[in-house]
Amino acid sequence: MENKELWKSILRISKYMHREISKELKKFNIGNGQGEILFILSHNGDGKSEDELSKILSIDNTTTTRTINRLVKNGYVKKIKDESDKRVNRIYLTRKVNEIYFIIKSTKQRVIQELIDGIDKDELEIFSKVIEKMENNIYLRR
């Protein structure tokens, strides 16, 4: 596959995945950026600082703070001052996130199933290895 075609395919798949998740998040008044923060906190453990979240997402601190403030306003996260450094806010999930967690998870499972439909186990194994290498390439360049 030519690089141009590979780029288009990855872009189409990515857009589709984001669109499907966005439809579900919208029902809960959650935008994409907010969803990404909730995803990180729920999968990598909450209690991260705003600065840590900015670095993970590769976005500026102002955008992170604005996004977190919306999540706080809507009751999905709470900010707690770090015990050892009061200048740092730690971000924790609230119970309200439980309401949406399973809906998002089932949407992701549905989308993945749609994407891998008709692909055999061996092909998926090769694809998983290739995509892992691509992901590693991203982190090697940071």
Structure description:
The protein is mostly helical. The protein has one domain: Orthogonal Bundle (Arc Repressor Mutant, subunit A), CATH 1.10.10. Helices cover 70% and strands 8% of the residues. The protein has helices at 3-26, 32-44, 50-57, 61-73, 96-116, 121-140, and strands spanning 48-49, 77-81, 89-93. Strands 1-3-2 form a three-stranded antiparallel sheet. The protein is globular. The model has no long low-confidence stretch (mean pLDDT 90).
> Structural class of the secondary elements?
mainly alpha
CATH topology: Arc Repressor Mutant, subunit A
What gross morphology would you assign? Answer: globular
CATH architecture: Orthogonal Bundle
Largest sheet: 3 strands, antiparallel
What's the SSE blueprint?
Blueprint: H1 3-26, H2 32-44, E1 48-49, H3 50-57, H4 61-73, E2 77-81, E3 89-93, H5 96-116, H6 121-140
Brief write-up:
With 142 residues, the protein is mostly helical.
What are the key terms here?
single chain, 142 residues, mainly alpha, Arc Repressor Mutant, subunit A, 6 helices, 70% helix
